[in-house]
Amino acid sequence: MALPIEAPEVIFEEITGARKVILNRPKKLNTLNYEMLRKLYEKLKVYENDPTVKLIILKANGKVFCAGGDLTSAYTFVALGHWSFGASYYRKEFCLDYLLATYKKPLLAILDGHVMGGGVGISIHSTFRIVTENTVFAMPEVLIGLFPDVGASYFLSRLPGFFGEYIGLTGARLNGVEMLAFGLGTHFIPSKKIRSMERSLEKMVTSSDSSITTMSMIIDNFAQKVNVKPDSAYSRLDLVNKCFCGESCEEILSSLERLALQVQEKWVQEAITSMKSANPLGLKIFLKIIREGRSKSIEQCLETEYVGISHLVGRTISNDFYEGSRAMLIDKDKKPQWVPSKLEDVSDEMVAKCLSRSFSDDDDWLPLQLPSRANKTNVVPSRL
After folding, report:
1. Catalytic position from the list 68, 69, 113, 176
2. Does 377 have pLDDT greater than 80?
3. Domains and CATH numbers, the chain
4. Could you say which of 70, 149, 178, 303 is catalytic?
5. Per-residue pLDDT for 310 more than 70?
6. Fewer CB within 10 A of the terminal residue: the chain, N end or C end?
7. Section 325-344 average pLDDT
8. 149 catalytic, yes or no?
């Protein structure tokens, strides 16, 4: 009896003038494993150099766009082998993120569902980022023993005020309307109109006029104006800034606790709860790299993040990556035992070591080598 043919985890669909890249792992929330990253990188390189391709559409099957990297597989992968196997996953992921951040063809990401972690990394630099009533954005890495990566120290540091610190230190979720308000999304289109928009774009790319201006006009025809709800943290940006401008995580948490005595607002309580349950080392690493990221390029941010990730995966400072994966993804008891367990026990020296490029005692560590992008002047802007 013949074995059933498994569906591809990424579908590459060719239509005249355009290419569709469809994440097709809905039962696993379209989390990105190593093989998916490899295939995405290879195909996108080909598409970029194909003169007949005028537009890349990035979407997903199922109710989730992409819940991030496949950390469960990464955890198992490393447990069965050597920590450097995990680092190789991040090298592949960051190279893909950099390719997309410097892409020379228009990219359209349809974020009709949850987009988190690695899913943000592959979509955030798209020329057009379509959000819907189903969209949920988050960077929750501090809750699982890591810190926001995939270029987060670059794109979150570009948000207004200190809202990037709020997102990265608490894992707070934004809906599609809030993403649009902050520029994380470029257009809000109701989910039921997405397919009609796609058909209009498909028709456009077969014509002689397939400029970005024409693409924008077509997308604008389907887009709706929407308003952020009054109880959103977006409407409290002044209070967010007041709390998250602090020079240390301890100062930020103290500011939130003082604010909680003055106002009864849900986002404040949720921020306090999240920071108290998050990985203390991950919080401090992220605060340092987002502050430095404001003056860095996307290349520099990815390189710094890769070094930090390598230290966590390599257990040079702490076992928190593995403990977080165990508690949140494997055993799912949701009770990680962080070491150190308190913010005040994470020293500046520990954070500095996590971001140092000193792996002299381990020949298996390889530095991040981002792909050469010779002519960056032709990059299509992402409106980030």
Report:
1. 69
2. no
3. 10-355 (3.90.226.10)
4. 149
5. yes
6. N
7. 92
8. yes
Say how many C-beta atoms besides its own lie within 10 A of residue 347's C-beta.
11
| C-alpha–C-alpha distance, residues 352 and 333, integer Å | 31
CA distance 83 to 61: 32
Give CA–CA dist 7/9, Å, rounded.
6
Q: Which residues pair with 23 in a beta bridge?
A: 10, 60
- Four-residue CA torsion sign, 22, 27, 29, 31: negative
Any idea which residue has 């005040």 for tokens?
Answer: 344
Tell me the sheet residues that pair with 175: 136
Residue-level pLDDT at 279: 97
Confidence of residue 376 (pLDDT cuts 50, 70, 90): low
C-alpha 126/C-alpha 191 separation (Å) is: 19
Question: What are the φ/ψ torsions at residue 349 (nearest 5 degrees)?
Answer: -65, -40
Catalytic residue among 86, 118, 145, 171: 118
Residue 331 designated active-site:
no
User: Is 50 part of the annotated catalytic residue set?
Assistant: no
Read off the amino acid at residue 122: I
